[in-house]
Automatic annotation (TrEMBL):
Methyltransferase domain sequence ranges: 48-140
One GO MF term attached to the UniProt entry: methyltransferase activity
GO process annotations (BP): methylation
PANTHER family named in the record: METHYLTRANSFERASE
InterPro entries: Methyltransf_25, SAM-dependent_MTases_sf
Keyword Methyltransferase: yes
Keywords: Methyltransferase, Transferase
Protein name: SAM-dependent methyltransferase
Pfam families in alphabetical order: Methyltransf_25 (PF13649)
UniProt organism field: Haloprofundus marisrubri
Length: 235
């Protein structure tokens, strides 16, 4: 996995949310949460695993809606932020945070109703292995996102401290087939790169987002989208 030392640093964990999801980054946070909820549907009573849960943005959100959630991550510092967030939201009893390796998940086959990973596959050195593990422990559903190879992501990819793996649609289709998964639904978004939104005030970002959505909705928009959300079913 790329940038493990950077990702696990205490100072990175403390500042992670504020740097990425403040200012115009709030729009990114909102859209990603929409994508997760749309894909998973009603989660009350479901048993959900989140791979690379980080600071618990999605873990806590799902627990607040009645899911029993396991959040797995390699960074103890990130999960410490997640535990604090869960306590503040009053859902600490619905979440178990586990430090572990996504390539060797410590769960039996078909254990969870749904398994998800956000902001993970762009860092994965062995994506096929990770996806196969996600499928193994899921009864029904696997959901994840990718950054796309034919997009504005290419422009600033080299600036990222951890690097970033970009995927074509064909790449994703091969991964799904190899893992024994069938694509059920997909959506594509963000013509403009994430980094641009994070640098500007939320009000200006909102106007930029309207432009982004207008471009995305034309006939070429989907192909230019920098982010894709993939909702797959277990075969």
């Amino acid at each position: 996995m790329k940038g493990q030392e950077w990702y696990q640093a205490d100072d990175v964990a403390r500042e992670y949310d504020s740097k990425r999801f403040s200012k115009g980054g709030r729009l990114i946070d909102h859209r990603e949460k929409q994508a997760v909820l749309s894909a998973l549907g009603p989660v009350e009573g479901k048993n959900v695993l989140e791979i690379a849960c980080g600071t618990g943005r999605f873990t806590v959100m799902l627990a607040e809606r009645g899911a029993d959630v396991v959040g797995l991550d390699i960074s103890a510092a990130m999960m410490a932020q997640g535990r604090q967030k869960a306590r503040s939201a009053g859902v600490g009893d619905r979440i178990e945070f586990i430090r572990g390796d996504a390539a060797r998940l410590p769960f039996p086959d078909d254990h969870f109703d749904a398994v998800m990973a956000m902001r993970f596959f762009h860092l994965a050195d062995t994506p096929a292995k990770f996806l196969a593990e996600m499928r193994r422990v899921s009864k029904k559903q696997v959901f994840f996102d990718t950054f796309n190879s034919f997009s504005t992501r290419v422009v600033y990819n080299w600036l990222l401290p951890m690097g970033s793996h970009l995927y074509s649609r064909a790449d994703v289709e091969r991964l799904l087939a190899g893992a024994g998964l069938q694509l059920a639904d997909e959506s594509h978004d963000f013509i403009l790169p994430y980094g641009l939104y994070r640098k500007i005030p939320n009000g200006i970002a909102g106007e930029l987002r309207e432009l982004d959505e207008t471009i995305r909705d034309n006939e070429y928009g989907e192909k230019l989208s920098s982010v894709s959300y993939w909702n797959a079913e277990v075969l």
